[in-house]
TrEMBL record:
The beta subunit is responsible for the synthesis of L-tryptophan from indole and L-serine. Tetramer of two alpha and two beta chains. It comes from Acidianus manzaensis. It comes from the Archaea. The lineage of its organism: Archaea, Thermoproteota, Thermoprotei, Sulfolobales, Sulfolobaceae. Keywords: Amino-acid biosynthesis, Aromatic amino acid biosynthesis, Lyase, Pyridoxal phosphate, Tryptophan biosynthesis. This is Tryptophan synthase beta chain. Its cofactor is pyridoxal 5'-phosphate. Coiled coil: none annotated.
């Protein structure tokens, strides 16, 4: 049996030097009154920003961060979904990396820890961020507390209302949580003036967090769409590769859901870089159709346009996503590296609707006993489709997916889905 410390990687993996073509660089808008790139230097920890722009393939994980990973339960388990295989009657083998085993219940802590560590190393005492479904805000609140810092989280209003337990957990970790849009920022007040009942969006919350950090000389931690978050999340895929090797298995199909891209990229990119796997499938929401209807263009990651333009698949910074059941997927764009790989046809995509993912979540819960996060249920639906295709073709495929978190704090959303499905 391989020891925990041996499975946990000592380096983060950066896919940027292994992309099929150079990644289009971030840039300021042509009519810019100020440099957004200079703004990043003011609000992000210096080492986090350096890692965002690095072309190094491997970056050493600091010992304090690695110890932090061990403390929160890394490496997370790689489990075989044997009962799901039996329920589907498929010859395929199904494995899942269970990120719900962390204290915060999701993969988000994997980048919150190093970003908080680098902020603290630079003398920062207060960090700020946004959160959609609440997993990222929860991770930041815990990571800040682990390094004796304060945290402020702007939570998308509809998720704030749908998931009060997430707010409670963040507050237990010492975080201050506000329903965004708020009256605390100029941008929030502008949004509320136009629509007092605005449900909020990740782009709006991101803009508020950045403005708040800038106004108070705090530091901003980024959760998903920038490639530095994917870099830190690479611990997932690297662990999974070692665990698969220990089992003597080679993956054929790798699957993950996509909000901004850190969950999918952190899981799949190490396999892609190592040339392991035949098919990579990124799964999004039918109700937020960025894969099917988005454009591959330069766009702002945030709604206020405070961050630099990045080239990505996007529905546009002004897109207002509907208040769907999976708050973590309510984002208008996808990470630049993921967007490029999708445009090159290296990564496939799927989009599924609420009835489809609700049925997939039920099947998984009934067979494996784990209630998945609604976001991860999108990945499960793709897994089921691929397993049934293997059954039809009588192929012994090995399917591996990332279960980005549990859904135990999403039960109110599941209750609503149950009511809608019964009509």
């Amino acid at each position: 049996m391989v020891e925990r410390e041996e499975i946990l990687p000592k380096y983060w993996y950066n896919i940027i030097p292994d992309l099929p073509k150079p990644l289009p660089p971030p840039r300021d808008p042509p009519d810019a009154e100020f440099s957004r790139i200079d703004l990043l230097r003011k609000i992000m920890p210096k080492e986090v920003l350096r890692q965002q722009f690095t072309v190094e393939r491997f970056i050493k994980i600091p010992d304090d961060v690695r110890n932090g990973y061990l403390n929160i339960g890394r490496p997370t388990p790689l489990l075989r979904a044997k009962r799901l295989e039996e329920k589907l009657g498929t010859p395929a083998k199904i494995y899942f990396k269970y990120e719900g085993a962390t204290p915060t219940g999701s993969h988000k802590i994997n980048t919150a820890l190093p970003q908080a560590y680098f902020a603290k190393s630079e003398g920062v005492e207060h960090v700020v961020t946004e959160t959609g479904a609440g997993q990222w805000g929860t991770a930041v609140a815990l990571a800040a507390r682990m390094f004796d810092m304060k945290s402020t989280i702007f939570m998308v209003k509809i998720s704030y209302e749908q998931k009060p337990q997430r707010k409670t957990v963040m507050q237990l970790y010492g975080g201050e949580v506000y329903a965004s849009p708020t009256n605390l920022t100029e941008f929030g007040r502008k949004v509320l003036a136009e629509n007092p009942n605005h449900p909020g969006s990740l782009g709006i919350s991101m803009s508020e967090a950045i403005e708040y950090a800038l106004s108070n000389d705090y530091r901003y931690l980024v959760g998903s769409v920038l490639d530095v978050a994917i870099l830190h999340q690479s611990v997932i895929g690297q662990e999974a590769m070692k665990q698969m090797d220990e089992l003597g298995e080679e993956p054929d199909i790798l699957i993950g859901c996509v909000g901004g891209g850190s969950n999918f990229g952190g899981f799949a990119f190490p396999f892609l870089g190592a040339k392991k796997g035949e098919k990579y499938i990124a799964v999004g929401s039918y109700e937020i159709p960025k894969f099917s209807k988005g454009d591959y263009i330069y766009d702002f990651p945030d709604s206020a346009g405070l961050l630099p333009l990045v080239k990505m698949i996007t529905l546009g910074k002004d897109y207002v996503p509907p208040p769907i059941y999976a708050g973590g997927l309510r984002y208008h764009g996808a990470a630049p590296s993921l967007s490029l790989l999708m445009k090159e046809g290296i990564i496939e995509w799927r989009e599924y609707s609420e009835p489809e993912i609700f049925e997939a979540a039920k099947i998984f819960a009934e067979s494996q006993g784990i209630v998945p996060a609604p976001e991860s249920a999108h990945a499960i639906k793709a897994v089921i489709d691929e397993a049934l295709l293997a059954k039809k073709n009588n192929e012994k495929k090995v399917i591996v997916f990332n279960l980005s978190g549990h859904g135990l704090l999403d039960l109110p959303n599941y209750e609503l889905m149950m009511k809608r499905s019964s009509k």
